[in-house]
Amino acid sequence: MALCLLGTLVGGSVALPLAEASAQSAPAKDGLIRISGSSTVFPITAAAISAFRATKPGANVRVQLLETGTSAGFRDFCAGKVQISNASRPISTEELKACAARGIKFLELPIAFDALTVAVNPRNTWAKAISTTELSRLWRRSAEGKIMRWNQVNAAWPATPIRLCGPGKDSGTFDYFNKAINGNASDSRRDYTSSEDDAVVVNCIAKDPQALGYLGFGWYASNTNKLRALAVNGRKGLISPSIQNVQDELYSPLSRPLFIYINDSMVRGQDDVRRFVTFYLQRGPQFVKQARFIPLEDDTYRLVETKFYRHVLGTSFGGDLPVGLTISQALARSFSQLRKPVAR
Fold this sequence. Notes:
Layout: E1 2-5, E2 9-10, E3 13-14, E4 19-21, E5 32-37, H1 42-53, E6 62-67, H2 70-78, E7 84-87, H3 93-101, E8 106-115, E9 117-120, E10 129-131, H4 132-139, E11 163-167, H5 172-182, E12 193-195, H6 198-206, E13 211-215, H7 217-221, E14 228-229, E15 231-234, E16 237-239, H8 243-247, E17 255-263, H9 264-269, H10 271-282, H11 284-290, H12 298-309, H13 327-334
Helix pairs in contact: 1-11, 2-3
C-alpha cells in the first residue's frame, strides 16, 4: 500500500485528505493520470502537479501520485498500470525486458540532478566528513551485525553504538548508493531502519544523535534544521554535497541524474497526460528549485522537450546503472538519441 495524493496539491503538501490506494489497477480512460515511483523525484513531480492544477487546462485533471520507490514504480510502469514513472536511476535490463514483454514503449526524460547526501544528527559532534572507503566499511553486506559502533568506522570516533537509516531495496537511491560505494547495487547490509519514503529516513536521523543515513539532496536541503551533511572524501577529494559542487562536477561518485519515464502510447492517446508532461518540462527549473534539487540548464530543458516532442523512444543507458557520471557525461548519453533516426 502507498499514500495516494488525489486532488489539489499545494506546495508539495496535500490540500485534500490522504487516502490509501493500491497501484495495482491498470489505467482506464477515466481521466486519471497515474504516477508512481521514486520518493526522491516525488517532491519535484508534486510541485508540477500543484502548479498544473492551478491552470485552466489542469483545473479539473485528477492525478494519483504514489511514492513507492523507483523499482516498484518501474514494476507498475512496465505492467501498464501507470502512465508516468518517477525514477532516481535509469531503467534496468530486467525492467527493459518487462516493458518489452508488454509491448510498452517509453520516453526517458532527465529532469534534474541529485547529490546523494550522507547525513547525521546535528547533535553529532565528532563526524564532519567520511570517505568512500569508510562508507563501504559501514554499509556493505559483510558489515551486517559486525560494524556496530562509530569507532569501527573511524578509530577517532567514539565507541558508541551507531544507528543506520536509509532507503529500502525498492529505492533507486539504494541501488545507486550501493553500486557507487560497494560496487554492486544489491551489496548492502540489512540491519538498519529502511523505507522507500525519504521522510522516514529524515525522521530516523533527526531523532537519534547516534544516527547516520543517506538520502537525496533535496530532502536534506529541506531539513537542514534536523540534519547535518557530511563532506565525502571521494574521487576528487573532500567535497560537500551542494548545488555548486554538482554543477562544477566535483561531487563524485554520489551525483546522479533524475528522470521521469512516459508511456508513449498513453501520452499519444491521452490529452491530459500530454498537456501535463508539456507543462512539467516547460517549467522544469521552477519545480526542481522548489523541491531543493539541482536543475539542468535552461537550454538543456529545451533538449528534453525536443526528445518529448519527437517521441524519441527507449533508454540511452542500455539497462546499465552508471555511477560517477558528471552532468555533462550523463546528459551527453541521454541526448545521444537525438542524433539517431526517430523510432516510429
